[in-house]
Amino acid sequence: MAEQTQTVKNRKLLLVALGLGVLVALIYNLHVSQLKNAGKSDQVVVLRFKNDMDTNRTIALKDLEKKYAPADLKDGLGSVVVLSQGEPFRYEGYKLTRAVQMNQLLTYDDIQPQRNRAGAEKGFQEKGPRKVPCVLSVDPALLPPGLLPGDIVNIVCDYDFAGQPQYYRIISGVRVDGVGELTRQDMADRSRRPSARSVESYRKITVLVSERVSLKLCNVTRGKNVRVERIDPPSAELEERADKTDIDIEAGFEELAQKQGLLKP
C-alpha cells in the first residue's frame, strides 16, 4: 500500500515537473521572439533578389526576399525600393529594365519605366486641353504608399455640410505631376532623380487640370489636407482620359459646394 502511494506521488511530481518544463519553454520562446522583434518597429524593409534575372523578366514576390535595415539609414539608400513595416509589395508583374544579379537590392531604376508608363514614357506631347499644375496640401499619413508622379488619382476631402461631416470625392482620374519636389521630369530623366525615394515627409502633391478647373479645385480645397485615392492599375481608357480630357469637378459635389458658397454658380 505504501509503495502504491509513493508511486502516485512520483507520478504527480513528474506531471508537475513536465508542466513546469513546458511553461519555462513557452516563456523562453516568447522572450526570444520579443527580442527578435524588438527593433523591427524602427526598421524598414528592402528587397533582395534570390537569383540572377535577365532584362524584361517579370518580377514576382517569390523572386525576392525581405531584409531589414535601420529606419535612420533610409534616406541614404538612394534609389533602393524601401517599404515601411507592413507595407505591401506593389511591383508584382512589372518587368525588369535591366539584368540583375543574385543578392542585388531592388531599385526604382530596375522597374521605373513600367511604374510611370503613361507619365514619363510618353514624354510630354499628349494632345488635349491645355493643363496647368494645381498644388494641393496633403497629410503624408493620408498618401497611398509609394505614390509617384505619373500616377492617376481621385481627390477626396472632408466637409461639414449642414452638420453632417463626411468625405466627398471632388475630382476623379487626374494625373499626378509631382509629389513633393519630385516631378514627372525627374522620373523620366534618371540624372535628375533625387536620392531619396520616400514620400513620407511630402506635404503637397501637384495634379494636372485645365485652367478653368484649377481655380475651382484650389477654392474647394483651401485650408484642407486632401486624401488621395490611387487608381492602380489604371485602364487604357483612364490613361487617355487623364491626358486628353478636360476633367471637371464631380457634378454632385459642385452642386453642394455652390449651395455652401464654396463655388460660384
What does this structure look like?
29% of the residues lie in helices and 23% in strands. By secondary structure, it is of the alpha+beta class. The chain folds into three domains: 1-38; 41-115, Type Iii Antifreeze Protein Isoform Hplc 12, CATH 3.90.1210; 131-259, no CATH class.
Q: Which features would summarize this protein structure in a list?
A:
single chain, about 260 residues, alpha+beta, Type Iii Antifreeze Protein Isoform Hplc 12, 3 domains, six-stranded antiparallel sheet, three-stranded antiparallel sheet, globular
Question: Secondary-structure blueprint of this entry?
Answer:
Blueprint: H1 2-37, E1 43-49, E2 64-70, E3 82-83, H2 108-115, E4 131-137, E5 152-161, E6 164-179, E7 182-183, H3 184-188, E8 204-210, H4 211-221, E9 227-230, H5 236-244, H6 251-259
Antiparallel strand pairs: 1-2, 1-3, 4-8, 5-6, 5-9, 6-7, 6-8
The radius of gyration computed from the alpha-carbon positions, rounded to a whole number of angstroms, is 27 Å
What is the total domain count?
3
Number of strands: 9
Distance between the termini: 102 Å
Uncertain runs with pLDDT below 50, 5 residues or more?
Answer: 113-126, 195-199
- The geometry reads as globular
Beta content: 15-25%
Please work out how many helical segments DSSP would assign: 6
Structural class: alpha+beta
Please give the largest β-sheet.
Answer: 6 strands, antiparallel
Series of secondary-structure elements, N-terminal to C-terminal:
HEEEHEEEEHEHEHH
Helix content: 25-40%
